[in-house]
Batch of 2 targets.
Target 1
Amino acid sequence: MSQNRLLAILLSVLAVLVLVVGGLSAILLLSGGDDDNGGTASSGGGGTTTETGGGGGNLAEPSSGRIRLASSDPITLDPHLAGDATSAEYIVEIFGGLLTLDQDLNIVPDLAESFEVSADGLTYTFTLREDAVFHDGRSVTAEDVAYSLNRAASRELSSPTALAYLGDIVGMREYFFGLADSIPGIQVVDDRTIQLTIDAPKPYFLAKLTYPTAFVVDRQQVESNRNWTRRPNGTGPYKLTEWRLGERLVLEANQSYHLGQPSLREAVYLLSGGSALTRWENDELDVAPISVNDIDRARDPNSDLGPYYEAFPQFTISYLAFNVNQPPFDDPHVRRALGMSIDRERIANVTFDGMLQKATGILMPGMPGFVDDDLSLPFDPEAARAELAQSQYADNMPVIQITEVGAGAEASVDMQAFIEQWREHLGVEVQVRQSDFASFLSAQDQQQLQAFSAAWIMDYPDPEDVIDLLHHSGSQLNATGYSNPEFDALVEQARVEQDPTTRLDLYRQAEVVLLEDAPWVPLYFGVSHVVVKDQVQGWFEPPMVVPRLRYITVNR
Amino acid sequence: MAMTATQEVYVDESSVGESAWRQVWGRLRRKKLAMISLLIVVAIYLGGIFAPLIAPYGYNTQDLDRGLEGPSADHWLGTDRLGRDMLSRTLYSARTTVVVTTAVVLSGSLFIGTTLGLIAGYRGGWVDNLIMRVGDIFAGLPAIIMLILINASLGRRVEDAARWVEDHTFLDGLVSSGFHSYLLVFGALSLFFWVGSARVIRAQVLQLRENDFILAAESLGGSSARVIRSHILPNVSFLIVLGISASLGGIAGSEILLTWFGVGVQNAPSFGGMIYEGSGARTFQSHPHLLLVPGAVVTALLFAFNLFGDALNDAMRGR
Amino acid sequence: MGAYVIRRLAWLPLILFIVSFATFALARFGPGDPVTVAAGQIRDPEVLAQIRQDKGLDDPIPVQYARWLGDAVRGDFGESFIQRGFTVSELIFPKMWVSAQLGFLALVMIFVVGIPLGLLAARLAGTWVDPAIIGTLLFLQAIPVLVLIPPLLWLFALQFNILPVGGWDGIFEIWWIAGVIAVPIPDPHLYLPLLAFTLPGFVGVARLVRISALEVNTLDYVRTARAKGLSEANVQWRHVFPNSLLPVITVFGLALSGIIEGALFIEVLLGIPGIGSFLFEAVTSRDYDVIMAATVIFATAFVLTNLLAEIIYGLVDPRVRLGASRN
């Protein structure tokens, strides 16, 4: 091993390293170059925006304050493609549609100034506001609305969500599947008037219009720039001014917002990094969610977190679902027995440290149609055993397998507690299968799962979104195969009932029938637990995604 | 995760047969560390094998009023969130590790690896080429990533197959026992753990073939099977044992990674699952025993595997 | 030598072909697809079927694979389903860069720390220090990263609050002195991942250095040097150090492949936006094109590492004649 040899080897290693590092730097430079292009193009757009923004902002005191939040990258900022809550949270701030939800989840006009419903409940005529403009200052016309609705349902876009929210519009389905060239249900009357016709008088159609799928995008931008979602030109209270994947996303107040100037000037979303609470404690964040490990500390008013802790109920429900076409769940006695032998309240307290609320039915507190009664099956092991004894499977219980989304060798902790209670109170052995999300969804859609544990997040504040959509025998989202003519009749009637009180009462009756039949055992309602810095006023965690930044003030 | 590492081993050609094993054992016995490691491995394996007899509680026996307790007289290693005894769960997890390592060693390192190594070395030619090139490909893959993909994609299919078997035969309880998930884990791990031992054995066989006594046996008309059995196998037995001891740690470690990832064994407590439940800095802060108990046992096991493997290597080389 | 390297490199396309096809088939063979995941809660089977058909996801796997391969050869790795509007190349290169920087630093660290420890152990052979060093390093190697990281996080981030809990902010942070002079210092996000990557890797280097240093110590010219009256420090520095260094390069491959495989778990646990955590997300959401690109990159890195290791090994140790056994 001569010195020469050593030198040669070291040199060759060095050469390889230089090559690798050099290659990677070249790649980085190239990709960085792309970024710069995007940046320049959009900062040009931003320039014009600021100009108009400044013009409109003279009326009121300019927005102020800056909030720092932890979040993750949106899957997409294209409102017509988004189907997840994270994306929706950004989209509702950046874009808008004809209607929106206010802080209290009332449906209120956004781009529309007013609307009329025809006597038969089928035709909605919207009049647009005169002062509604895109971030770049261009006025929003009825053509823009029509373009956006058409785009959402277009074949090229292949939006997985369009029909779910807009499929009630006459001709939308045919257009999506390429059977028609236009959508007869969308008519532009004049520059400021647009008419939508739906296939049946469905009062909840208005609620669906508050979802991003019905939002308005800028045709010029969409058609001219393939990467438009990286700096979208929307009509919402906030403009996207910076988005670095995996690092940060910045929203800045739209000073000329037509529903009133936002009081908060800037929201910075930090898209990576570890525990939000630790960063909150280091004063890197203004709001941080609390996990089960810190909840005791947060609840203690004398702790360092206590004074900042707040909890907000959410419109989410987790549940167990039984496939009524597969033994033993084709026997309602078995379903009820399983539902009555688990102590959901106690398990919520032990496994989640009381962070979730026991579900008292299907509709969450605050939802239209919610009643302050416990409609769910009571915890009663005695009665559960009696139910089981009546069932045809009392002596020959088939293998029961519950599927849940998760990783790890064993079931989630609460599921393991349920299993133990079923064993203890009923003598029934239940197994759990863990599945990844993708496999779970496809098995669920094909009604393959014998039983499963899942959660539902409300899309719009109408009971139809959970009671009808997931349980009507004809619904495509009915994963349990549940079918009861009495229940179907009730929800069908509720779909077209024009009187709100009667309608909610119909849903209540349907909910009672459903809980008695027990294709679902509701488990818990979600609750959001956060700590909020002193400087932030008016922070709230709405029960479902609504625009909220403009109501918040930060003294910083 | 040195799954693809091969080692050269020199075995003194004269030192085969029973007396050679006795010599190795004699050398091993003088190594204090080796004996301690052996003791640790044996203790953990015995604990796993006899878990149902020695575990103070069932692995699933819950006491919701006594969750997340630290060590006490009732629960020597504390309890988890559902009030289950950590000691019992650890013993049952060891059982899972015992099953997985044994099965993979038998099927992968021992059966596939030895057989293919012997065939490649003895037959030579295109057979050798084919086997070794296939081995190169497997060794060239990032094993753990491929394992995750295999298990994530095939998990449900294998389960369906197991259900089909249950429905069409008198076999019962395949799915409920988690048998199919074990099968998948064995299969996938074996796929990657044969290469090392096959390579080493092939090299040794190539060398042996040049030896006079084998040539003599062949020229005397001994059948291939007979020559392999009576002349070659005894000469590579050291290598087989070494290969096994070198791969044990990797197999146990991979099983833990797979299970942590959610694509490992199911319906059974396992170290991967326990570690998963205990990980997270804040969980560790408030309930360190959730991670420390399974973590310590796993670390001790892997440490002992490594030390013992080294010592065995030394002993076989006459040190 | 050159011919051997070329022959081994010729294997690379074949291995990549097999890896990519196996990955492709495995990813698509599994139940569930990205269309379902991207749809969110309200999934209309007819709509999803239409989208699948439009995107060609219903075609036979070999047809789809041929299409993917055709695009990939031209540098088009497709689009991500879970980060819409971005091509896989756009997403993956920044992540590769993060992983590459971290991996490179970890590799350097392993040698920078491992070599002195090995020399120290050799120097103090026969005392308690030698087995203590090697034993400790062996022990560190035995701790699975899954077990190692939570206590590290707790200790440095929660207890002492001196390091961030995870994430990534580049290698350097700039300190401004008086607002004028810029001093680059290592970013605090670096330390935890570096620890997690390097702690299990030290032992390989240290042990080898120790063994070869012990061998060198007994060699004639070292003895001669000592006999000539050179100081021990001088002997160590001039003779033992350079000559025991050589074999160390052979563990380069092992160290690097450990880092590559460890990246998957370490990046996920520490929230580092590298290619490992990217692959993790992609696998759980069946983001086909990302899985493909990330796996192919991992496999390429792995194969090249092994090859490089073999070449270096051949250069260092003339006894190993590369390719000699082949035929």
Note: Chain B has 13 helices and no strands.
Target 2
Amino acid sequence: MLEIRNLHARIVDDGTEIIRGLNLTVKAGEVAAIMGPNGSGKSTLSYILAGREDYEVTEGEILYNGQSILEMDPAERATAGIFLAFQYPMEIPGVATMEFLKVAMNEQRKARGEEPLKIPEFLKRVKDAAALLDMDMAMLKRPLNVGFSGGEKKRAEILQMKLLEPKLCVLDETDSGLDIDALKIVSEGVNALRAPDRAIVIITHYQRLLQYIVPDSVHVLYRGQVVKSGDKSLALDLEANGYAGVIGQAA
Amino acid sequence: MNIHTTPQRTPAETALIDAFSDRLSLLPGDGTVMLKRDDAIEAIKSGLPTRRIESWHYTDLRRLLNAVPDFDPAAAAKAIAPIVEGSVILPVLNGVSSAKVPVIDGVIVQRLSEKLTDGSIAPGLDPYGTDDAIGALNTAFVADGYFVDIADGAELDKPVELQNLQAGGQTHVRLAVRVGAGAKAVIVERQTGEGAALVSSVSQLLLDEGADVTWLIVQEQPDTATHLAQFKAHLGKNSKLTLFVMNAGGKLVRQEIVVKTTGEGADFTLRGINLLAGDTHTDVTMVLDHAVPHTASTEVIRNVVTGRARGVFQGRINVHQYAQKTNAKMACNTLLLSDDGEFSTKPELEIFADDVVCGHGATVTEIDHSHLFYLMARGIDEKSARGLLVKAFVAEVIEELDDEAIVEALETRLDGWFATHG
């Protein structure tokens, strides 16, 4: 589903190269975890997948279902089924959360040639998803993410992911800022989305989240490259021995 | 020795002076009113204000007002649907009030032409200063409008909507409103029409003790019209005024807001949005006097500038020497969406009291790229995402009004503007 080949990318503003020859393949139905120390390029990778303009791909290719996405803007990627759950979701005053959800769902439907959702159907879907994530509907009446706690923001991201039904989900440090109860709820939300035609990429610093969302593959990112890949036991190994060993081998 | 040279009159000045001679015999008013008209036209004869007059520095009326249309008594205008369903409408069509004045419980409504004829409105016709060009223009030419008196304790369950609808030519209208002690009302002032008109419109509001008024000015003139407006209010003891101003049209617009707190405990809120497009000039100028102790005010102005539009906000707060415990906060935020657009903002605080809380702030920004990215990352295309963010920037101010029917009505006006200019 996702194939990244020899990807090089830099920050547009200052030219700093962050991704330096990254290779990664994630198949449909797979849950892949990307781990790595701070500054290894994990979040940058998530932004590049979503199409953030602050980064420029200088070499290599990102294929999504065999097609290059490099020329697509963030909205086109989203409508094609790519979803990024942000590490730090933006607070947008003045945009009502419900209105935002409706516009996003219907814009995606429109791009796929589907009819807009009728209001009762839309409300039902939001209510069902919110109930699953133990979210209060009153929260969704507020402006988008404004005044949400860290945990509420993360839940709101997963709620959006659920409603938009993407095919490639990228979760950037979704576990950060979550207490253990919230972590369980969010993880259940993600697990419910596991499907044979959907791939999930989990970017995380710690192994903790992977106890609840068990990955099929684990990849260690260091200095903009995948330096080691393995199965879920790699995550446990990293937890026990730290990154030093893996990085040492690579260096 | 002083040598006074009168600069050559502009075509607009000449046209106004000629129009006054032509109109004089048709203008209503007793002796006192006619004397005030004479004084007013003298002020115009000495020249329209230029950028050398401080309060007109960013709006050089003499240069910008380059044509004055003739009066067109034959032009027709039709009343339109009110912004809030079920409102009582006071129509002023092409400058003329309705002979059939609506009946509202607890309210006296009179045609302003009658109040001019009997002279009872004369004291309110004085301009408020030598630089009050809008006041002078209106006093010279005002022919009609309404006088509204809301009885003590009356609570109007429906908004009253004044519709000043121009049909080209010139219209000079005045609305004088007194709100009695403890009375409560929502008043909508619609300013729109269809022609390349010159409109002057003055609203005067007097709030007695404990009165509570929400006043909405919705200005949607065509981009051929010159709109010169003034809103003047005195706020009595413990009265509360929420003034909302929306400018979403006009070629040359100046909306002056002159407010004075005259009673302790008075509370003034100003919320304004300026939606600027095309090759237009829009100026909102506020002079607020905190004249007695223990009064509060907050002002928030949000501007969206597109095309080659130019905008101005001047906000002056005077805190008088005895006006201790004044609490005043003013903010002006501008979203500049084009390279050729322009916005000038001038906050002024003049404080003579020593125990007050006053503050002001101004920002000029573009659309936040991280917000844009976030919305697009959810599949909302760039144009719609920008539209959502721009609308959000101004809608925030509307939502504060906290009255569902009003918020909905104003958002409809907002959507209308974005549909044509977004």
Note: The first helix of chain B runs from residue 11 to 23.
